[in-house]
Structures are given as C-alpha cells and as structure tokens.
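[stage:ingest] chain + small molecule (magnesium ion)
[stage:ingest] validated
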Amino acid sequence: MAQRVAVNDVNGSKRTSRVRVAVRLRPYMDKQDEKGEGPCVRGLGPQSLEITNWRNATETLQYQFDVFHGEQTTQQEVFLSSVKPLIPHILNGQNASVFAYGPTGAGKTHTMLGNQDNPGVIPRAVREVFQLVNTQERDQDEWKFSVEMSYLEIYNEKVLDLLSPSSQDLPIREDKDRNIVIPGLTLTRLSSFSDFHTHFVPASLNRTTASTKLNQRSSRSHAILLIKVVKSQRVPPHRQLTGKLYLVDLAGSEDNRRTGNQGIRLKESGAINLSLFTLSKVVDSLNAGTVGRVPYRDSKLTRLLQDSLGGSAHSVMITNIAPEYKYYFDTFTALNFAAKSKQIVNRPFVRETVAAPTNVTGKRSREEQEAGGPGE
Ligand code: ADP
Ligand code: MG
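[stage:predict] done
[stage:export] tokens:
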C-alpha cells in the first residue's frame, strides 16, 4: 500500500525527502555536429526545455524539471542554485549528495570539476565548507570542526580507493546506527582548501592516466568524492555530529550495448548499466514518495550512498545533456529519467536559442508565443 515516506530529522519533525533534479544543457559545439544539422534541444525557461520529436518532425517534446540551466549558465550559477544551499546541513550532522548524470561528452566533468579558469562544483563546495567552518569556529567557541576527505571510484562494481591506488576492492558495511562505512578506505584530514587541492589533484590525475591506458575508464566508472565534517562540542556533554557530502561524477549514461562492445567492455557495460539503472530506480522510488523497498542494495553505488540519498539527506541530481543530434537518443533517455513531466507539442522545432533576441518574425506562430517561447 502506498504511503508517503516520513522520516524524523534531527529536530524530530516529520518530513519527506526527494531528489531535486536539475538539467544543464552544454553549449552547442560545431565539432560535434559534422553534418551541420544545428542543435536539436533548446531551453524554454527556468524549468523547461524542448527537443525535436524524432517520431514526428512537426512536433516537439517539452520537459519540466525542478531547475533548467541553459547553455549560458555559468559555473557559479550552477553552484549557487544547486549546491551551495546543501552545505550548511553538512556542518550540522546531516548528509547530502550531488550527482552529475548524463552521456559521455555532455558536461558532467565540466560541471563537477571544471578547469582552472572555470572551477566546477567540487572546488566551490570545498571552499564553501571551509568558509562556513571558519566562520562558525570564530562565532561559536563551544564547537570545533574537523574536515576529512575520501576519494574513490566504482569500476565494474568494485570499490577502489583513489587516495591509495594499489588497494583492492573494498567492502561496504552498515554500522549499528545505520551509517554506511567502508573499512580500509583512506580518510585524509584537511586543514584548508589548499590542503584539499594538494591531495585531490594527484588523485584525480591517477584516474585520468588510468583512463587513457584502460580505454576511457573515466567515462566507465563512477568517481566519488566524500567530504566529511565532524562537529564536536568542546564542553560537556561533548556532543559530536558528523555530516557527509558526496560529490559524484557518474559514468556515462549512454547505452554501451548499442556501440557493439564485446568481452571486458561488455562486462563493464553490464556493471555500469546495473548501477545507473539501480540509481534511476532509487531516485524514482524516492521521488514517487511511496514506501516499498528502495532498492539501495542492488548496486554498489546506491548501497554506498544509502545514508546520503533519501531519508533525511539532501540530494541533487544534475543531468547534463548536449544539444547536437548525435546525442539525440542518449539525451532523450536522460530527459525521460530526469523529467517531472513531459508533453508533446504540435509545432516544428524552432532553431533559436534562449539568448537569441525575441524578435518575432513570421516564423513563430501565435501558439508558440502563447506557449512562452524564448527570452527568459
Ligand atoms: P563528460 O564528463 O560528461 O563526458 P565533459 O565535462 O568532459 O563531459 O565535457 C565534454 C566537453 O565539453 C569538454 O571539452 C568540456 O570542456 C566541454 N563542456 C562541457 N560543458 C560545458 C559548458 N557548460 N561550457 C563550456 N564547455 C563545456
Ligand atoms: Mg567526464
């Protein structure tokens, strides 16, 4: 029988928890469009986009999400809207998780990691953690904080420690308080943001080197950064609160079976499909708000995230998509996973972008204008 999932948060109040879903469209790239077909996706507003309907060229499919980040969206805007609001909870003994989902080439690593000029969610989130910790330590003498990190990868349903690359597949356990723990995983104490940088950069380089050797392993494994904040009371009764933040760059969501993989590649595809498929079931079941078995145990990824996804945790999934036709089917699949609602609209796809001037020409019908065309 269906009923709402109710959990007790630290204040004892009942609340339900769902996964917020944001979609980010990366800018159109000429070199991804050899046939010069132009984009097949465009934004409509702060929560919606449209994509050509491959079944019928006179129709488009319109989708609604919690948030839509158009191609002009900056790294800072993505951080402010989707991630920054989660950080204070970590300093208060609650857990949170942020995932980048989507096909290879759609912008997951750009969103999570970014580059020197345009840092992504990970460096911004860690910086914010230290900023809040420093402010709170200054303002509240009673509490002290410690910040720690782990960095791991799930590859072929194996849990591998990226801070200790020679380690073997690690077990995932649940302790008596229902916290998920990984015995043997390196947990490194961090004293500042630059300290984080020092540990994180070589570990992510490890991963990139492995990727070129092992045939794009980076797009076939889930990279998981854990930032753990322990808040301890300096005076009796010496309360201690632990909050965890998971920042996850997921494996590519494209259907690897379509590309004719064999042998080890096919085995990988199976493993990737299992964990992403299970993640989609978990997110669906949390967002439907029904009690039934949430299938966390069906994959390593969801088992690992069990205490930080659903329950009293705060979660955001950023689905990254690309606008070129060669990504069409993977985009379509990703949108169907991410959407709150979908609607078929009878009008041909209009080749304009959100940023284009809203200079109404004979090309746009009245219906389109009523549907609230571009211009937000
Ligand atoms: P993924 O990790 O999903 O495979 P990447 O993050 O590597 O995809 O992105 C693919 C390419 O597109 C990279 O060259 C990246 O720099 C570029 N890119 C992705 N998103 C954006 C964006 N929002 N703005 C500019 N370039 C982007
Ligand atoms: Mg990537």
